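3.2 Worked example (two chains)
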Amino acid sequence: MKVFMIGAGDIARHHGRAVVRLGGEVIGVYDVSEKNLEIYRSEFGCLSCTYEEIEDYVVQADYVVISTPPTKRLDYVEMVLKHHVACYMEKPVACTMEDAMKIKAMADKFDGKIMVGFAHYYRPAYRKMLELVKTGMFGEPVDIAFSRLSPGFGFHAKNLGASWRTDPDLACGMTVESVSHDWKLITAMAGGFDTIACNYTGTIASVPKFDNHTSITIRLRNGAIGTIAASWACDIPTCSRAYIGTKGSIFLTGEGMFEFTKLTWKTEDMPYAETLTFNDSYDHATGDVIFYAHEAFQKAMREGTEFETPLADGISALIYSLAAKESSERQKTVRVPDWGEV
């Protein structure tokens, strides 16, 4: 497939490598940074374009990848959807509900096809966890416990210029930018939420909009409870995703924020726990993780099926994230607002 890239940062290079690995071609790239464009052109042998030339490349593409900061996206989305070209959009889809609903309006107007890049949803270890949960062998959910702690963006206030995430003009913080992954992983296993209570904080005084620690408690619509503990400023990397049900439990663990190396489960009728091991590392194999998402994207395009992580999932994740931020700022448990059918 022929793919045009809007955004040429580090994650965009992984997108390009996934396209090539799948037998496709990066036909062009746009970015506001000439340095990023130079790196991208050198690796992929593609042309770069000016802002005014973006649509000339869009119409030649089978799909477009948008991996710009979420605050700088609306015009690019319209340039893609108005030509009825499919879009792979990095999460979060936006930083405000106003922008998210503008994207939805564009998708409705042009019957746009958008997959949101919740890449961790497509990883083999999580897919196996979801598959086992969906069999019903663990019963109804009682407690969903997610923990991921690791050095990350702005760790010990270093390398602040290395990412838009710590740019004072672009930052949206961990609760919006990164916890969006957790919303998707949890809702796929256990459904949506009624209430959210959150406390978040940032440790970088120069970037007050950048929260890099968040602690969230949720109540799911089916009565189950859940927790998310996340930090980009922890010296000891570790993670755990757990589903505790009425008939058993399953844990996905690893040493790193997104390391999926061990899947362990036990039900009430099993004498011992069973374990599968995976070499499923985001820290060491980011390209593989992005590859799985593009593989699923292209498969859905070829077969004419629905995306498993559509725009609606991206908007729902933003609703949950903004509710969490509201909870922290008001120091109250908040009911998740109803934005109707998204």
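3.2.1 Second chain
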Amino acid sequence: MIELTPVQRRELRAKAHHLNPVVTIAGNGLTPSVVAEIDRSLQAHELIKVRVQGAEREQRDALMDELCRSLGAASVQHIGNILVVWRQRREEEKSAAEETQKRPGKAATAKSAAAFAAAARRAALAKASSESRRSPARAPAPRGRGTGSGSRGR
């Protein structure tokens, strides 16, 4: 668990003020999937808010301590049902993120074969749907003022 100085804590609280909670901990508590999601969010953002639902203050305090200990993070603030947590990004993932930022046009977009096939099916269905909406029996409306035999400009 990381300990912060009062000055660091104050700066992080100011930065966290405008953030929205990215993870919600509900009735099942701190499950491994919730911990993994918080870990990913901390790696991506460093500073996050976590909403805790259905827990008393003592339970939220214990939850915050357990969370910070298991993830190597620092407790910034605990107000009501909102916990603010900070952890500096890990270097191995940070260097990979910096590489993609240096080459923004060359970012890797790995898709699975299933995702590629699903996107192709959606595109084909959309095309077929748009073509079926056009009815070949209807002729296009003539352009201009009309096709009547009226005299023009006399």
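3.3 Remarks
The first strand starts at residue 21 and ends at 25.
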